[in-house]
Design the sequence.
């Protein structure tokens, strides 16, 4: 079953903060976050691994609650370039490789 | 990082025909995947392309409809067979390295329209 993201869409003014949530019904090994701009391929932002390790973008932070199978992506002091659709991708087992992508959150930043 | 070349970038096809999409990676990668994405929607995994063996398909996708080849560690093809308008979508190739916690890279996608 596909992870559920919230909100579905959000509009912010430049400089405001945003939080995007991802919730899975399954136990997870890792959570990935990607941003996709219209007509482009998804681009990697961050990985959060079971056990607390994180890898990713220096200006974006995220959290991973392993017990609740939930992750949140925090975008602070948003820039116009942050606009796009954000997807979480979940991995249930180490070495599984394949990702199950969430429902998506469309973020629009306005000047 | 990995650079992925996916061809064609778009195509318009007649129903009942087949289209083969190619995915070429600039380095050897352990894992290759094919996704489908309806405009404005999320990505749905079609299958994992296994080097030298049959692909592993997700529920709802079958080999007869979406045959996949992966002859080596840098190349894969996805064929969409006997197409219908419902197959109109964006098809994306994705790769991951072999280590734990590695990110996924995506091709630019193939926008398929079936008329």
Sequence:
């Amino acid at each position: 079953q596909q992870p559920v993201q919230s909100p579905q869409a959000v509009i912010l003014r430049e400089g405001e903060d945003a939080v995007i949530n991802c919730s899975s019904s399954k136990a997870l090994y890792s959570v990935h976050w990607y941003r996709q701009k219209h007509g482009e391929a998804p681009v990697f932002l961050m990985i959060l691994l079971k056990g607390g390790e994180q890898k990713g973008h220096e200006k974006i932070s995220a959290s991973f609650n392993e017990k609740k199978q939930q992750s949140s992506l925090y975008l602070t002091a948003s820039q116009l370039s942050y606009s796009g659709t954000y997807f979480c991708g979940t991995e249930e087992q180490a070495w599984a490789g394949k990702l199950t992508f969430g429902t998506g959150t469309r973020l629009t930043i306005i000047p | 990082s990995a650079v992925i070349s996916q061809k064609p970038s778009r195509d318009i096809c007649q129903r009942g025909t087949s289209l083969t999409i190619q995915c070429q990676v600039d380095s050897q990668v352990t894992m290759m995947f094919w996704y489908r994405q309806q405009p404005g929607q999320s990505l749905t995994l079609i299958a994992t392309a296994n080097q030298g063996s049959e692909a592993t398909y997700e529920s709802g996708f079958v080999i007869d409809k979406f045959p996949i080849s992966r002859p080596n560690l840098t190349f894969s093809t996805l064929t969409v067979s006997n197409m219908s308008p419902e197959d109109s979508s964006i098809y994306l190739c994705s790769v991951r390295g072999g280590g734990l916690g590695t990110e996924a890279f995506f091709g630019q996608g193939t926008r398929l329209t079936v008329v």
Q: What stands out?
A: The radius of gyration of chain A is 13 Å. The longest strand of chain A covers residues 84-91. The mean pLDDT of chain A is 93.
